[in-house]
Design goal:
41% of the residues lie in helices and 14% in strands. It is of the alpha/beta class. Strand 5, helix 7 and strand 6 form a beta-alpha-beta unit. The radius of gyration is 17 Å and the shape is globular. The model has no long low-confidence stretch (mean pLDDT 94).
Length: 266
Amino acid sequence: MTSTPICPDVITPESVVASEIRPRLGFLYPRGGSGFEYYRFAEHFRDNLRCYLIGGMHAFGGNKTHYREPLMQMGSVENLSYPTRAMRPLDVHAGMWATTSASFIGGMQWSLDQAKAVSDILGAPVSNTALAFVSATRAVGAERVAVLASYPHEVTDAFRSFLGEADIAVTDFVHLDADCGEDAFEMEEQFLIDEALKLDYTGAQALLIPDTAMAAFPLIAPLERELGIPVLTANQVTIFEALRLAGARVATQAYGTLFSGAEIRS
């Protein structure tokens, strides 16, 4: 295992952090298109944290990757082992498998086993985006959530079941029937906001927007203003969990309640 960075202070966009204690975060990132959000996040903190994206895993199913069997294949440890080994020389403090669907499709225990196996290969703490949604939802104090999902109905329902295993209830959901990550990436911001506003938020304490292929950072501020509840997106929670595993904390008003510096549960 690599050692946890000793970074005693909360990192803000104004921070100056010595290079030897800057968090180094590694992300296994599949095809899809929104990897730039990780780099933008690091730039926001003036590179006082480092985000490294590694590809090389296979995608299955052609242009229909958002279905159960292709997702099970993509999320297999065998498929993730090569890019994980390629990440080892970066000596990251924490790693993440940065996909939602290919980390929840097999259920909670499958997801936990996936994270442990990748951690064993990397030699550092590892989690994945599905587990990060659970962690972030708990961190903002939510137990009931609405879901805006890019996936077909069957896969969206699998996400709902996964959250149920973590005792997180889904009050309402929308499935947008994207066959693959590329289709999700092409969804326009206003379309996504309009779809989110169609949900019934009665009893919901947060809105979850899964799929790391979606460039969803711009949705956070307008939807939090409109809904008055935390908005959690896939790339956002993936970074949050990586920082948590690395033992680092950040605060900014630019990326929603989750990073706002408000009281967040550990």
